[in-house]
């Protein structure tokens, strides 16, 4: 019984000490993110104890604006915004790879398109690129974060981080570290009406899609705007109000990929 009381007391003391430390850090450094930056896992005591000797404390900067290269998707890749944005990210990292190489390598979902009245069956964008990336003369759509992450890992093994589903502040953390962030949004950079979406039946289940799908590379932010390189026209550090940009990003599933 005494042993169990000792163990329980030790646990309570440890938790109390850690809580006081956390409050101290938050008061001193403001908004922070711990070493889930390293492995993209939510903070917990086990991971903290295992990695505490190499966990950075990162202060989210008030403003960031990175000088990433700009690449246009046109004329070669009318539907290639996703791989073009990835090419910008990789080139910023110093990796010499172009959009056409990435377009060839990106996984493809070859599920046939079937239309029966208002019902549409096709592939899933998280299984690979859907349709024709090179021409509007044939049906096509795009690709989501999982194939992009898989392709990025070929060039940056062990360094790619999939932030999909995270809060926008997680993206700010990586930007504060100097890493631009690949994201899925839409071509209006604002939330879309329900009428802009349709439902497909796919081998992995139903998926809601919009043909206004777009991908950009986030390069910075400040207190009013999010800045990004736009493959649609080669725009560098374009800006959109933070609220509008986040609304569009969240509507498409908070998809984001970067590197550590």
Automatic annotation (TrEMBL):
InterPro entries named among the record's database cross-references: Peptidase_C39-like (IPR039564), Peptidase_C39_single_dom (IPR039563), UCP032442 (IPR016997)
Lineage: Bacteria, Bacillati, Bacillota, Bacilli, Bacillales
CDD domains the record matches: Peptidase_C39A
Keyword set includes Transmembrane helix: yes
Keyword Lipoprotein: no
Gene3D superfamilies listed in its UniProt record: Cysteine proteinases (3.90.70.10)
Species whose genome carries this gene: Robertmurraya beringensis
Domain Peptidase C39-like: 66-231
Keyword annotations: Membrane, Transmembrane, Transmembrane helix
One matching Pfam family: Peptidase_C39_2
Segments crossing the lipid bilayer: 6-24
Listed name of the protein: C39 family peptidase
